[in-house]
Structures are given as structure tokens and as C-alpha cells.
Design goal:
Blueprint lengths: L1 H19 L2 H113 L16 H14 L1 H141 L13 E2 L6 E3 L2 E4 L6 E4 L2 E4 L5 E3 L4 E9 L3 E9 L2 E6 L3 E2 L6 E2 L4 E4 L10 E8 L2 E3 L5 E2 L2
Parallel strand pairs: 1-15
Antiparallel strand pairs: 2-5, 3-4, 5-13, 6-12, 7-8, 7-11, 8-9, 9-13, 10-12, 13-14
Amino acid sequence: MYKLLRIVCLIAVLLPLALSTPSAAQDSFFEERERQIEEKKREIDERQREQDALKRQSLFAIEELNVTQAQIEEVDAALAEVNNWIAAAVTRLQALELSQTAAQERVNAARERDSELDDETAAIQERLRDQVVDIYLDLVYEQNFLLQDGDPNRNARRKFYIEELGADAQVLIDRLRQAKDDQQIAIEQAEQAQTEIEQAQAEIEAALTDLAELRTAQKKLQDEWNRKKQELEERIAAEAQVSLDIENEIAGLDEDIESIEDEIEREKERRRLAELERQRQAELARLAELERQRQADLEALAAQERLGQFDDISIPAPPPFFQPVPGTIGSGYGNRIHPIFGTLRFHAGVDYGGNTGDPIQASASGVVTQVASRTGYGNTVIIDHGGGWSTLYAHLSRFDVSVGDQVAIGETIGGVGNTGWSTGPHLHFEIRYRGSPRDPEKYLIAR
């Protein structure tokens, strides 16, 4: 038994040291993880700044695209005007081509008519010449002699010959005059038609030149518009892709942070459980030491009992204990017939009668080490007063304290009750030294 108790005590001493050894490593673990989280957060901030810059660039690009769209609208208006010019030029060209065709036809007709008139004039003049020769052999013929030309002498001679020629000659002369007039008109029309043709050709050439220039300008504007639009669309698409990549990277960093935080939480939980295990082992060791001391005390008591030396047990001076509830003791310390089982049993404390809920006060100052429900004791509170001394309060109806609470003498810790092995509401009160019960009546101080 003593060997086992020594082993338990040794474990109790070494276990806290063993459990506390990794604390520095654990602190290093948390510091490293926190440093990783801070790095991830800095990376996220940097990526978000990059993303904000890209968004601003995209806004600028969109604004530029809007400006380009306005320019495009201006180009469209210019193109529409150019198209109108082209349509007007085409219409004008078509009209000039028609005019050219008509003028050419008139020129051709005038030329044909001029040729015919030349033949007809020559025939008329031949006939007149024949007649004049027949009548006036001494006449020297002059070309166009019979036509009016404003010369008085020629006109007198012409009148004389006409009268000599007679009516047939007059008809021929009239026809000759008309033929000459028609020939002159045809020549003038031919010249006018030729002028119109030349003008039409010049206008057509000018229209063709304008048309070529307008079409060149139209193509240049359209090409510039298409190039600028494609450039801006590619730029916006590239920035959108980069922004999406940054969002994915930020999401990955957030996942990394969550993973590290989960790892920290798991480490905290492991550490908490390890601490609870350390506390449990320490409590077991403490209880084992108390049990060892109790056994030693019991053995010493037994030895002294055999020698009749109860009053010679060497224990330290107890703290001042006061009665926890008012009233008198109903059942005292020592052997008695158990009220429930009817057998002789040792009663390790004293019982005070009372009503359910009556306040129970701490008999002395100390630290609450147990607040629990125990089979025989029912609801139980144990207070450690230091130096190996403790008090126990059983059969409580309620708890007003928790484990670890520092209580002062006279502070309410619970209420009188009837829990556990009890025949009615009362307080079972014990004073213990190193876990071994002592007769409370020997240690209680009257108030």
C-alpha cells in the first residue's frame, strides 16, 4: 500500500512538470500561426489594393469607351453625311451621264444635218448656176451671190438676176437660204452639245474624284473606330480577368486563414483538454496524498487507540470554526444506529435540524473544492481551509457557490435540504483534517 502511494505521489509531482514542458513550444506554435495569419491578411490587403486599382482603371477605360462611343456617334454622323454626299454625287453623275448621252445624240444629228445641208446647198447652187449661165453667159459667178449680204451693188445685181430667173429660181433661193439657216443652227447646236458634253465630263470627273475621296475618308474613319473599340474592349476584358484572378487569390488566402484559425482552435482545444487532464491528474494525486495521510492518521489513531492515547495525537492548530446553522445538534459524532439502515455505523459528523432552504454559512474562510451530488451525502459542498483542514456540508437543497470560489466565514453557501440518505431536512456537518473526520464539537467556537 505504501509503495503504491509513493508511486502515486511521485506521479503527482512529475506530471505537472511533464505537462508544463511543451508550453513554450505551444506558445511558439500560436505565435507562428498568428504570424502566418497576419501575413495572409497583408497579402489580402495588397491584393485588394491591386483590385481597387484595376477597378479604377476599368472605370477609366469605360469612361474612355464612353468618350469613344461619343466619337463614334460623331463618326457615324460624318459617315451619314458622307453617304449623303455619295448618294447626291451618284445621282448627279447619273444625270450628267444622261445629259451627255442626249448631247451626244444632238451633236451626231447636227453633224448629219450639216452634211445633208452641204449636199443640198451644193445642188441648189449648181441648179442656179446652170440657169444663170444659160441666161447670162457673160456673168462671172460668185459664190453665194444670190444670198443677202448687205452690199447694195451686189443686192441690185442680185435682184436683177432673180427677176430674170423667175419663180423657180426664187423657190430655189428660198430653199438655199433656209438650208443655210438650218445648217447654222445645226452647227450651233452641235457646238452647244459639245460644250455640254465637255462640261458633263468635267463634272463627272470631279464627282468621281469627290466620291473616291469621300470613300477613302469613310474607310479611314471606320477603321479607326474599329481599332479603338477593339483596343478598349480587349483592355477592359484583360483587366476584368486580372480582377477575377485576384478575387480567386483572395478567396484562397481567406481559406488559408480559416484553415490556420481552425488549426489554432484545435490546438487550443487540445491544450485545454491537456490542461484538464493535468488538473485531473493533479487532483488525483492530491486525493491520493490525502488518502495516504488519512490512512496514516487512521493507523496512528488505531495505534494510539490501542494504547489509549487519543489526546496525544500531534496535529496543527485548526482555524476557528463556527457553527454553520443555528440550533442544537440532533445526532452527534461517533457510532450510532443508522436511522435508515438500522445498523451500527460510524457517524463522521453532526446533524443540525432545520427547514428546507434555511441558509447555511461557511464555518470558516477558505476555497470551495467540491460542489456535487453524492450518493449518501446528497448535495454536498466541501471547503478547504488550508493546513490540511476542511469542512463538509451535506443534504443541501441548493448550491450558492461554485468550485474555486473564495468564501469568507459566515458567507451563505447553500440551503438546508433533504437530499441523499436523509429522513428529513437537516444539515450534516463535518470537520476534517487531511480527509479524516474529527469531532466537530471539539473544534467549534461559540459566537
